[in-house]
Input
Amino acid sequence: MTEEEIHNVKARYAASVTFTDRCVGMVLDAVDRLGLRDDTCIVWMSDHGTHLNEHGSLLSKRCMYTEVAHTVHMVRTPDGSGAGQRFSDLIQLPDLAPTVLDLAGVEVPERMQGKSYAPLLKGGECQIRDVAISATAPNANQPSAVITARDQRWQLIDQPDPSQRTLHDLENDPEQLVNVAEDYPDEVARLHEAVIEFLKSHEAQSQVVRWFEEGDPGDMTGYVDRRLGYERFHVYWQHILDSEVIG
Output
């Protein structure tokens, strides 16, 4: 794309952000107008980021660089504690649900995979995660898959093929331009193990786990790229207003 085309896309993107800000303001005004500020937890978050010409991509979300994996996430607690603070602690989007339950004084079910970071919002300290994982759902029927694991310094863009794994030193290379995997094999191995542990603890299909462990998914008999019960997931949402589905 030319510089002018990139500029025009960025301008349109900025306009959409402005529109979103205005709509959020309307919601906040309504909360105040109804007298709900003191007993309402307000959360603003995104499901992913996007590229604005970083790494040669524009409005792309199908990769796992920080520009995509690092999401917008802001929380206002009912009492306003912690207002204006920024945290460098690592969390994942599944941590939101147990956090909201915790703030509401509801016991967090053991089956939930997320972790509450409510103590941070209240001005305290807690160790949520040593490593954060970001990914699209791996599909062992595809030629490759990408899962990113990062801690406070290192980011591994992991793939089943060891030769395709890239490591970035976020402290010295925040734009993730230099692959230092060959220089720090121990960091690659450590973060790769974190990916394997994540897959296992989240009940990934055995073929996906073996794919990342050994580079080969093995026996594909009976494999589906979604969990049992989710085979018609997209069909359901595409026809959510169909009375045959919801009736």
Notes: The chain has a mean pLDDT of 83. The beta strands are 42-45, 73-76, 132-135, 147-150, 154-158, 166-169. Residues 167 and 180 are 5 Å apart (CA to CA). The helical segments are 3-33, 66-69, 96-103, 118-121, 185-201, 206-214, 233-238, 243-246.
